[in-house]
Amino acid sequence: MKAKVLAKVDYLKPLEDIPYRDVVIQKQRYHQEVKERLSAIIGMEHVKDDETTVLAYAKDKSLESPARPSYVVFPRDAAEVCKIVNLANELLLPLIPASSGTHSCGCTIPRMGGIVVDLSRWKKILKIDHRNRAVRIEPGVTYDGLQEALQQEGLRALMPLLPRRDQSVLAAHLEAHPMTIPEFNYSEPLYTMEIVMPKGEIFRTGSAASGPPETINTDMVGPWGPGFDWNRLYSRSQGTLGIVTWANIMAEPLPSKQKLYFTPGAIPNLITFTYMLQRKWLGYECCILNKTNLALMLAEQMPDDYYALRQRLPEYVQLFCIAGLKRFPDERIAYQEADFFSAAQEAGVQPQFSIPQAPQAAPFFARHLSRCWDRDVYWKDAYKGASADLFFITTMDRVPQFIAAMQQAAVAHDYPANEMGVYLQPIENGRAAHLEFNLFYNPADARECARLKNSMLQPVNRCMHLARSLRGFTADGLKWSMRAMPCTTRRQK
Known about the structure:
Elements: H1 8-11, H2 20-42, E1 47-48, H3 51-58, E2 71-73, H4 78-91, E3 95-98, E4 115-118, E5 125-129, E6 134-137, H5 143-151, E7 155-157, H6 169-174, E8 190-196, E9 202-204, H7 230-234, E10 243-253, E11 257-265, H8 267-279, E12 286-290, H9 291-298, H10 304-312, E13 316-324, H11 329-347, H12 361-368, E14 386-394, H13 399-412, E15 421-427, E16 432-441, H14 446-455, H15 457-466, E17 471-476, E18 479-483
Parallel strand pairs: 2-4, 3-4, 14-18
Antiparallel strand pairs: 1-2, 5-6, 6-10, 7-10, 8-9, 8-10, 11-13, 12-13, 12-15, 14-16, 15-16, 17-18
Helix pairs in contact: 2-4, 8-11, 9-10, 13-15
């Protein structure tokens, strides 16, 4: 086994018998040699090492400390990615793939330097397969662009709640962002994909494994195999096991009609109501928001609108959508609506077509449920500038315990509990749920950042103590991700 050799670009240090000036010159010469070799692969204009570019990729919107890459490269196709991987192997340089325009959890910060491989310019929608409700996309495709293309074919994309405009659809699927339609998470909205492996080979998963898409006679919607379940290995791996160059993902039929309902109430009652709806497979989009998050989404003038809305809104509101498709849309809505109101009566809650304290909620969500956030400042950044998010997978019946634990921890660390956002997203028809806490802070205030980063460990420990079945805890500055294995879920995230 070869001895581990540190990359010269990032780790060359002065030796006792070499003047420091000569070491600097040697390092600069080596840096230029590597740049020329990268340029020979993808062209000089696609290799960046200027100060502005390097600093832009050295940090993100998380609490993680910055770290500078040596180069940022913009390959144009999979063949160039393979050559870059081979060169990085030869030179022992780290590779950090990226495809979204904004990053918020520290995953793309080059902690060991190296080469950032930016695929955000790859924006081709390669194929829309209406028959199989699938679409094959490159890494730089964003949700708004995808939705526009799919709607022309009578389809729509599965979406997280209000993603950023520059969010990569492929990255969201690989990182398992919770979709607002609770039917598909463990059953994988990700079908097949093409991956550049760590040694530079191209590998394709599932029914795409037999060859390049242009040469095989398959629909590429079979996610299993060859042999191993590769999709589940590569999704959630944060780009550490390979670079994905395209993916074939699930699409849904475009509704011809839909109705939105807002149900205010206490969190235990809303959870009971949500369980009842999900067990009957009613509706499409379904989630629960507390008044802090809801106020931030609806506020147009910050901070006045936010403060006013937070005062008026109910503590928690369930958002629920019933839709009719191409065939008999009115009949479909009618029978689901009857079951919906029957469940509401049994759960002791009262659904409404709008929120009386915020009448703008109905048109806002009717417009944004299938779109990205469309304002210049993202809703999580609008109040103080940034948000630290604690999220994990659990079951809905345990959510009140977690909320109480987080509120106690917030009070203990002088964080105003009423300013903490809560987002509950059922997945797999309620068998599990994504629970997220949003802690808003000023990124320009170093003391506040340090206090929040240090104090977050206590609520994390509280949550882990409550959830003895939780495991796989990771802390990455902004993102603390705990993965639950409740007996009601079919697979671990």
